[in-house]
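#random but structural
TW: two for the price of one
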Amino acid sequence: MDLRPDLCYIYSMNHLVSIKDLSLDLIDDIYKLTAQLKANPLEKHLPGKTIAMIFEKPSNRTRVSFEVGMFQLGGHAVSLSEDAIQMGKRESIADVARTLSRYVDGIVIRTFAQEKVEQLAQHATVPVINALSDHTHPCQALADVYTIIEKRDNIKGLKLVFMGDGNNVARSLNELCKKTGIHFVLCCPKGYEMEDCEISYKPEEAVRGADVIYTDVWTSMGQEKESKKRLKDFAKFQVNEKLVSIARANCNSPVPVPLVMHCLPAHRNEEITDGVIESQNSIVFDQAENRLHVQKAVMVKLMGAR
């Protein structure tokens, strides 16, 4: 499982704003700590510590995993809605960062603009964790690759095909795959590409030899007005039984092949069929669970003893 087997919890970090900020050494360090915390979920690494969670977007997995994670670590989480603080409207981002830094030991933010995350990190004197922006989703990517490691152990050279929009999840996953040696391919309709990755426009060709097929909703939060157009544009990019069978026939990895992933919530029978998400290939709920364990490791790295 180790990316760097000679390391043991020695690298420090200040914030988690983007995967680009993380070295391979630090990623390996986070994963070793994740394994420890998953095996011993009630180890109290953060007794008496408090984290503030700013949610400007709806949240299920993110809110619950961070709150439960802080509880298990011996700490406390305070949830702040957009209406409660109106960051950038009622009060400047810099002032919110400085004020919260006097009260809490860390700040989690789930928002639209990446610039808000970066401004918080710039002005806060406590660690800031990006729990999702429209541009990146580092916590999701870290949990995803950790889940692949659990299932395949040696991940170098594996082929991961992201079937869908070049969105925040795809961007962070691509960045992490590059650092860990996974071959990342984005398969999408023309007009939905993202920077700095291999692109395919043909789903059946893209999945040949794929070890992992990953998908996400075709219409994300804030894109609801584009829904009809996106449904039409992505109609041929559904992860269904036929697509999985093509990958299975052309892949040399152990059974089941390929692994199927989705960051949730899923629009079942839209971007992925019920049959695939409930199949033996699916590790969707394993990756959802690992959000908890990976985020605990990140919080310990950021807010634990230094």
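TW: number two ↓
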Amino acid sequence: MDGKPISASRVVISQVMGPTEANIHGNVHGGIIMKLVDEAGGVAALRHSRRPLVTVAIDSLSFLHPVRIGNLLTLHAEVTYVGRTSIETAVRVEAEDGLSGQVTHVASAFVVYVALDAAGSPAPVPALVAETDEDRRRMEEARARREARLDAARARGEL
């Protein structure tokens, strides 16, 4: 199976936040943002694997600033690590005020997926190819996160 470059997985998704996504104070629900993070990461993983996927982990999603009704929410996602059947994606979330044009980083997360075959079993995915020094650095950081996830799962008796 040939490898694929990180650039082939990159995706940008934008959506205007309306009243149905917000609470009575005009702030967008965290669950709405989390769903969009999962979708953006999933599209990046799909572009890489071209297989059905399931979400297995979302690492450390912290909300840094509120997202308000009327903001344009933009999610940038790309694959950062590939195991035999698993794919980690990095997702950055930004909110843009449509009137002022001010863009605010509101959240970041790493989302892990497992690719599936036709029977619903884990399936191999293409290797990830770094094109730049920045790609290589991010892949090394992702490898360390994967090891930390596996160590934590072992400590919990899950592996």
